[in-house]
User: Which sequence fits this backbone?
């Protein structure tokens, strides 16, 4: 099939590339000419393991191309995916900003020829597909099209596998005609017996928000239990393992830390709360999870301060990891974005390292942050080291080298990567999250 992908951000580029790998002919369109030029020259603007090789393979095979022109791609397309950003509104009210969705709808409309399925791939509030349909009909009354909702469930750092072997595919449509097109698009997954959830458009639009909200609640829950563990002298690692063995609970997302971040959980929880408010309902559990997450980040600042003797003023802090999770360069709402400025404001010096996120971090963190070549350079002369993100290369550090290079051997492990007893035996003053 001929498919047009509007947007070459994280979702658009991964989805378009994987659909090309399925055998479809995919044209990715973006208004940003610099981005398209990069992609045409084989340079990937985001970090995602395996993506660069897959992009180059499908470009070489003639199934994947990039352009700034809708006129060159939309008329031939049997499906047009909208995969543009839906950030939190700049008004600060938590609503999803649908500006890019509506712009894309207007831009697509005049180029539609023949029957086309317009697919909302972006995470959007309930009712967005109806608005997209209205806009296109206003702009092109004679267009023959349907709108479908096909939310993405891609984990940064594992996106290609998530697309190729998903837990499920959700498709919301109003007509059998649109359903058949979507079935053809995802035919390789049908052949693998992947569960395909076919539902109404409104249900499909809500599924992504509900899934992310549940996971955010789970993270906030285990973080609160970790705080209880610290208070009573229990061990969160053993506790989380034990409750995760219960099949009704499961072990995923039961890892305590400095709070959730990234491109989805923070904005989607807020957007979901605003959606339900419009219908006169409330989500008190989700609201509590959002509040707990903010408090957890503040709690981490206090944890660091306490380990420095009550004040970070004049102290050098080594920070290992800046992105919100490993295997991505994404800094959006990363805990570091909240924690590091608070430390800098009270007079701390920050020396930071991240395997992939340092260039992106410069857009989000104060200019006072110093970026260094590796973990050992960060720790040299430091009064404390904070393990912020659990990249694999931080899991087997030469602890003896780090200890002897530091001003004082204080190790604050916000991801519980290291064993407390081993760290103490190595001569560190150690603290984790939810354990002593």
Assistant:
């Amino acid at each position: 099939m001929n498919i047009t992908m509007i947007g070459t951000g994280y979702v658009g580029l991964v989805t378009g590339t994987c659909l090309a790998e399925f055998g479809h002919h995919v044209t990715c369109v973006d208004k940003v000419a610099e981005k398209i030029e990069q992609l045409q020259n084989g340079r990937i603007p985001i970090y995602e393991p395996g993506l660069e090789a897959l992009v180059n393979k499908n470009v070489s095979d003639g199934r994947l191309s990039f352009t700034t022109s809708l006129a060159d791609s939309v008329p031939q397309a049997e499906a047009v995916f909208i995969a543009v950003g839906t950030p939190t509104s700049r008004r600060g009210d938590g609503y999803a900003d649908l500006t890019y969705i509506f712009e894309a709808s207007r831009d697509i409309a005049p180029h539609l020829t023949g029957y086309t399925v317009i697919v909302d791939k972006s995470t959007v509030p309930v009712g967005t597909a109806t608005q997209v349909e209205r806009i296109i009909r206003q702009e092109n009354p004679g267009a023959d099209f349907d709108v479908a909702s096909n939310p993405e469930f891609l984990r940064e750092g594992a996106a290609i596998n998530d697309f190729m072997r998903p837990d499920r595919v959700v498709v919301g449509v109003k007509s059998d005609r649109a359903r058949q097109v979507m079935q053809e698009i995802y035919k390789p997954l049908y052949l693998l017996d992947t569960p395909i959830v076919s539902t109404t458009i409104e249900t499909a639009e809500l599924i992504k928000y509900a899934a992310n909200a549940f996971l955010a609640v789970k993270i906030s829950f285990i973080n609160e239990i970790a705080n209880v563990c610290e208070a009573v002298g229990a061990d969160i690692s053993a506790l989380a393992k034990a409750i995760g063995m219960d099949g009704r609970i499961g072990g995923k997302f039961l890892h305590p830390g400095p709070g959730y971040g990234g491109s989805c959980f923070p904005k989607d929880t807020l957007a979901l709360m605003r959606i339900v408010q419009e219908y006169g309902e409330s989500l008190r559990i989700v609201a509590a999870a959002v509040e707990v997450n903010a408090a957890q980040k503040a709690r981490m600042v206090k944890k660091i301060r306490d380990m420095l003797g009550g004040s970070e003023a004049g102290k050098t802090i080594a920070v290992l990891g800046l992105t919100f999770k490993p295997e991505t360069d994404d800094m959006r709402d990363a805990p570091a974005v909240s924690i590091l400025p608070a430390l800098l404001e009270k007079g701390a010096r920050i020396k930071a390292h991240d395997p992939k996120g340092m260039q992106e971090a410069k857009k989000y963190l104060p200019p006072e942050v110093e970026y260094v070549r590796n973990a050992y350079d960060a720790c040299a002369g430091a009064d404390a080291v904070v393990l912020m993100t659990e990249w694999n290369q931080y899991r087997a550090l030469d602890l003896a080298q780090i200890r002897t290079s530091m001003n004082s051997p204080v190790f604050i492990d916000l991801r519980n990567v290291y064993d407390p007893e081993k760290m103490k035996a190595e001569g560190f003053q150690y603290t984790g999250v939810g354990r002593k």
In short: The chain is about 40% helix and 15% strand.
